[in-house]
Amino acid sequence: MRIKKLKWMAAMTVMLLFGAASARAGGFMQPNLSTSGAGVANAFTATADDASAAAYNPAGAAWQEGFDLSLGSTLDYRNSSVKTAGNKVAPNTAQSPNGFFLYGAWMPVGGNLGITGGFAPLYDLRNSWGNALGNIQLTVDHGALDAVYAVNSSLAVGLGGDWYSSKFQLTEGAVNFSAKRGNSFGGHASVMWKFHPAWSLGLLVRSGSNVSLNSGNQTIKLKLPDSATLGIAHDFADVWRLETDVQWTRWSKLKDLNVTSGGATVVANPLSLRDTITAMVGLTWTWRENSQFRIGYAYDQGANRSTGYNPLVADQDGHRISFGAGGDAFGMHLDLAYNYTFHSNKTVTGVFPGTYRDRKQSIDISASKRF
To answer: Where residue 79 sits, what CATH number does that domain have?
Structure first.
């Protein structure tokens, strides 16, 4: 019986990976929102079994009795450049973002109503090509607060609000735009359904938000995308968990990064972004109680179209591989994850011609405690 289960698990993994190869992702959303999620390439919506449920699927907190707190950090590394005519290579000198995340989840013992909350960088866009192509830095920090209701032993729902705090800098030609902070708000809903003892399904739907940033008499207006994530997970022999997630993101609503003053355009930065789908698959092995090894894969296709490509949003197809591990130590639960993303070279013609190259790595670490 166990051999049959292992064969079926292997076949399911192959099918999921094959299906992921036709999917799309992109834009400048931060891929890793927690260390446990990063280890499985963020295929975590149908699992959400720690405090980072606040980011992936708040409804998952319904099965976490007590108070769970998690604090972590992300270190990013990037190697990006463009090869122009005459085989000249221009490096992208933007510094990779490093940040931290904080999550909490509370569900009273024997109760059916709980809360989750969290803070993390959700969007980060950094490209520096010099004044000829422009330099940009957009950081959007995200806070969320949810009420979670356990309908019964197999179904839970969550409803919450989003707060976005945006910081934007753009240098292009003679224009130097710098806006410290712009606040905006949105909302989201989540579902976790354990429809069979070995299966779970998770769903998170999030609205976007409109941000207006001002620098003196100049203004830039951003439209952060709507998104929806669906995940399904299956447990094997009580020690293996296989999950696959699909995320749709509405990048097409962000039409430009124009700077205006008095209704007139000071700097025009039209964008040609498409809606994207991210496909992720992750495998977790619980080799002993509260100790896991994780591996994941995701296929990313950039939101930036070849036609109308704007290097300020340098974004292209890629493959992401993840590894992670976690276990109890020093009275806490510690997690560590590593991601490597290989982006396919993208040859662009038109206003900003050249072959764009990008490689990314990240290391995530976190400490959690359940009270």
So the answer is: 2.40.160.60
